[in-house]
Amino acid sequence: METLIQQTINGLVIGSVYALIALGYTMVYGILGLINFAHGDVLMVGAMTALQTMLFLMGVAPGMSPLVMLTIALLVAIPVSMLIGFTMERLAYRRLRNAPRLAPLITAIGMSFLLQTIAMIIWGRNYHTFPQLISTTPLQPVEGVFVTPVQIVIVIVSALLMIGLTLLVSRTRIGRAMRATAENHRTASLMGVDTNAVIAFTFVIGAGLAAVAGVMYASNYGIAHYGMGFMPGLKAFTAAVLGGIGNLGGAMVGGVVLGLVESFGAGYIEHLTFGFLNSSYQDIFAFLILGLVLIFRPTGLLGERVSDRA
């Protein structure tokens, strides 16, 4: 029972991060039909920018409160990531909206390599220790079950951001414009919606969420490096497909479900394979789920079947 509770906690923590990243994928796909494979690298830029800001603050104001330092780091990392998201949309994707689907896909992969290369030039190839500004001392709410304050903060902040995004899309004017553009961007444009601004805003919001997710991811594992965005980005894409890509609720559900499956798999894989595999093979579950979903339910858990008229 202790193992089950522990793996559930671990799954909720990493699943919350996957859900935040998946929201960026699903918003862009819902409006443009584009898979932005550079989204995971925006997460990396957010984490590395926050790391650089923390190191600078530690040098000029070593007595600063850790909470204030983390807040300042986020206030720097989020705008930087938003600027990158806006620049990618404006320079790389806008001209390819009417191009064959393969062109934006190749461009997205190219943008991913470009961001990684720039980050490698700036911060180097080495792994960097990410400052633990929030206590990592394990708490023991139940005998044999451990949870750190960092993990608690990750789940709470992720939940608040997901609720905030849901309210933004469903209750605000820009949210209605986003839904109208996702339904039919040409018709929305004829009705007076500035679709270019809406699409740019979607990239900016997704990049901001990715920056927060990057700081959370680095804080949870205590490291950051130029290639850290690839694997969580790929898993978040799997989460978006699992929940139903283009569906905000689906991205949230898919992220949490994928985190739980991955965590349970890591905890029980040795028992299931009679010791043949260990927890280092936990990534196999994410891609196994992706394959099964694409085979048996391509629309995802909350996706809707759409029929094309002849």
TrEMBL record:
UniProt entry keywords in alphabetical sequence: Amino-acid transport, Cell inner membrane, Cell membrane, Membrane, Transmembrane, Transmembrane helix, Transport
Major location category of this protein: membrane
Domain of life of the organism encoding this protein: Bacteria
Regions that span the bilayer: 12-35, 67-86, 102-124, 144-169, 196-217, 237-261, 273-296
GO BP field: D-alanine transmembrane transport; L-alanine transport; L-isoleucine import across plasma membrane
Family listed: Belongs to the binding-protein-dependent transport system permease family. LivHM subfamily.
Name the UniProt record assigns to this protein: ABC transporter permease protein
Organism of derivation: Azoarcus sp. (strain BH72)
Designated gene of the protein: livH
